[in-house]
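Q: Got a minute? One more chain.
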Amino acid sequence: MVGVFRSRAWYRFSRNPLSVAGLMLILLIMLLAILAPFVTPYPAHAGSFTNFTEASLPPSAKYWFGTDTIGRDILTRVIFGFRVSLMLGIVVLLLAVPVGVLLGLLAGYFGGRTEAIIMRITDVFLSVPPLVLALAVLGFLPPSLFNAMIAVTVMWWPWYTRLVYNLTRSVRTEGFVIAAEVIGAPKWHILFREILPNCTPSILTKMTLDMGFVILIGSSLSFLGLGVQPPTPDLGSMVAEGAKYLPDLWWISVFPGLAVLICVLGFNLLGDGLRDLLDVEV
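A: Always. Here it is, folded:
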């Protein structure tokens, strides 16, 4: 029965060519990120490396994406940059989603004072533009990848709290929840075995869509010098470095910028496909 369901789900998903293209893009990016030391032409260029004799070279057969102002291969650094971006997105969601989901479940199910306290705190965080909130957090912390993850996590959990809160409020009056309460099921059982599974499709869809936005926010922080620090390759900091030399050395910032675009586009297309497949609203 499960196999039939999976076959039908894949059939429905495969009927959307844009979603399949998004899945292929994400799989390719992940594969490149995992195998970066083996598939990049110059792995040493991902660290502290200089070669001024080949600095600022345009795209060519030797350097497909050209080189930067100190002679590092941009293609190599873009592929290693995928690693940093994916790590940022995964860690942020692994931290933000459990916190947001737990608070949303508590507020939506128990209501009353619990709901008032949790949702008012959530509203405060949601009232501040995400990037501004992240900049405010980083204003108290030294620039680094870890601190960028913390800053983005602080701004991201309220969105899951709001989503799960609304879903829980709509589910808690359903017959299966009332039946569990009548037979005396523990509160944790009702929250995590009855209500949460019904919220999971929307949560998974939102996580897929959010991966692209988290990567974009992380790249924005690095662009401003508040994220990953040199010589670690990061797409946002590479765009910022090349922006100083536009339009003459256009390839230094254009190719990392396109890499960010491809990441965000891939996750958005995949998320749209999952949303249509699971028939959820996020």
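A: DSSP finds eleven helices and no strands in the chain.
Q: Perfect, thanks.
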